[in-house]
Design goal:
The longest helix is centred in the first third of the chain and has 41 residues. The chain folds into 2 domains: 80 residues, Immunoglobulins (Immunoglobulin-like, Sandwich); 170 residues, Glucose Permease (Domain IIA). The termini are far apart. The protein is of the alpha+beta class. 20% of the residues lie in helices and 36% in strands. It binds zinc ion. The site of zinc ion has 5 residues, from loops.
Length: 305
């Protein structure tokens, strides 16, 4: 009994210290949790989105400043889809997002996960009203459909994601011919409007045989030939500029480069023609980001780094 009596208060004492420790632990961890939570709101890494409000046809640049203590790159999701992130320099990671003419105006979520933190940005996309163009094509031409091989090869070329960035400055125009059809224009072909259709590039009404120049450095990822089943695009070239940016040149009369060639800005790559679906000699120039079309003229007006 004596022993028990002696032990009781000491047990009580140790209980008290456990409770005290527990309260202190809870206080400490809850504060730590609050601290982490607060940091997520602040986001311990810098993000630069350009432009902050986008329009249809824009290429949106999302840059994330590298944290010296973190080796893993950030993960970025655009509209819930994971997009490739490239190392732009020693200080920045960067991803380019396409806002095609075919998308609806509204709010598009960009989610960034980096070093245990999450940042969500709601990108506002404004509408652009594109004009309607009437076009008359012979039935034999308007009813031509791309072959499976043509579709597959073009899709593969457009989805080239090179880690190296080849372009350095603003793009130059690939043709000196006058612009005839702008990007995003809706078309009424032989009196019928296809609601899903929009012009996916820029047309130059250049003379047959006139020069086509590479607008920036890049690697040729596809040369398609009308004689090899390219019934829609005709003779065509696709150039990979790196970081998910690809440009395309359609309806050529002749191709002066081959698959795998590295082309320099201003280099002659082919000649204007009217092969494939074309109402006459012209160059169709398309710029693609992550496989989706964007306004090519924007690439000639601003340096998208
Ligand atoms: Zn065109």
């Amino acid at each position: 009994m004596k022993n028990i009596k002696v032990l009781k208060p000491s047990l009580k004492k140790s209980h008290l210290s456990i409770v005290k420790s527990l309260i202190f632990f809870i206080f400490l961890t809850s504060n730590l949790f609050l601290c982490c939570f607060a940091q997520d709101n602040i986001t311990p890494f810098e993000i630069v989105v350009k432009p902050e409000v986008a329009s249809l046809g824009d290429t949106v640049s999302v840059k994330i400043r590298k944290l010296p203590t973190e080796k893993n790159p950030p993960r970025i999701f655009f509209e819930k889809t994971k997009v490739p992130v490239f190392s732009l320099s020693e200080t920045w990671y960067r991803t380019l997002l396409p806002i095609s003419a075919g998308v609806k105006a509204g709010t598009y979520p960009i989610e960034i996960f980096y070093k245990g933190h999450t940042k969500k940005i709601d990108l506002t996309v404004k509408d652009t009203k594109y004009p309607l163009q009437d076009l008359t094509l012979p039935k034999t031409v308007s009813e031509l459909k791309a072959s499976k091989v043509e579709k597959a090869l073009v899709a593969k070329a457009l989805n080239t994601y090179s880690n190296e960035k080849f372009w350095r400055e603003k793009f130059i125009l690939p043709s000196s011919g006058p612009l005839s059809t702008a990007y995003g224009v809706k078309r009424r072909v032989n009196g019928v409007i296809n609601p899903d259709y929009f012009h996916k590039g820029l047309d130059f009404a250049a003379a047959s045989g006139s020069s086509i120049k590479a607008p920036e450095n890049g690697r040729v990822v596809l040369v398609g030939l009308a004689s090899k089943g390219f019934v829609v695009n005709g003779n065509c070239i696709f150039i990979d500029h790196g970081h998910g940016v690809v440009s395309g040149y359609l309806h050529l009369s002749s191709v002066l480069v081959k698959d795998g060639d590295f082309v320099k800005k201003g280099q002659l790559i082919g000649k204007v023609g009217s092969t494939g679906i074309a109402s006459g000699p012209h160059l169709h120039w398309g710029v693609y980001v992550l496989g989706k079309t964007v306004e090519p003229l924007l690439w000639t007006k601003t340096i998208i780094d």
